[in-house]
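tool_call: predict_structure(chain=1)
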Amino acid sequence: MVTKIYTLVNQKGGVGKTTSTINLAAYLARLGKNVLVVDLDPQANATSCVGVDKLTVAGGTYEALLGEPNIFPYVLLNERLKLSLLPSSPSLAGAEVELVDELARESRLRKAILSIANRYDYVLIDCPPSLGLLTVNGLMAAMDGVIVPVQCEYLALEGLGQLTQTIERVKSALFPELHVRGVVLTMFDNRTNLSTDVVDEVNRHFPNLVFKSVIPRSIRLAEAPSYGLPISEYAPTSVGALAYEALAKELLKGDKQ
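tool_result:
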């Protein structure tokens, strides 16, 4: 199988982006795939979600963006999860400033990831909740498309237009092949009409691009990161776990077609 590189992006925080990155990666790994998570967020939440202390990270995405020729030594393997991680750390916050005058600054991450991508079946990139240079690097590295987590609440819809415009700008100016691979609906509450209305609206906005697997609002999903575990290990029989397992299988099935 050719390596698939997806970037999960949404400039709005709290939509389940990191949760989706980690849990999708964990289930892909459970399904026998060799998976690398790339944490591109200075908050390093994805790093923490797999049990790594961001303050002890020796190197990772910061070095990748600054042009380190060999980033593989910075990749950490979680033996329990059979999941690899290129970690983030607080130093990544300074990368946008340091890259301002650098040549080809938008494609630093792409170059770094492509140098090690053949070791993996899947590379999932977790972007920060912003549309700055870090996210542009994430979009430029999305060789097989962008996955957009969208919270099933009204305000989440307001940011979709801005995100779509950013994707179109990057597509027209830098990366013509950039496209949306799919939209993941998160924090769905079947007790409210609003959630259902948002699902309908997102399907209108992204026809034929919304994953059928919808992620429900779940206390277990919210608790899992505090234990440094994906939902597949923390509460494998919970509704959130079953939803992310279904999403991983749906992605795999679509990629085989």
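agent: Residues 4-149+219-249 form a domain with the Rossmann fold fold (CATH 3.40.50.300). Proceeding to next step.
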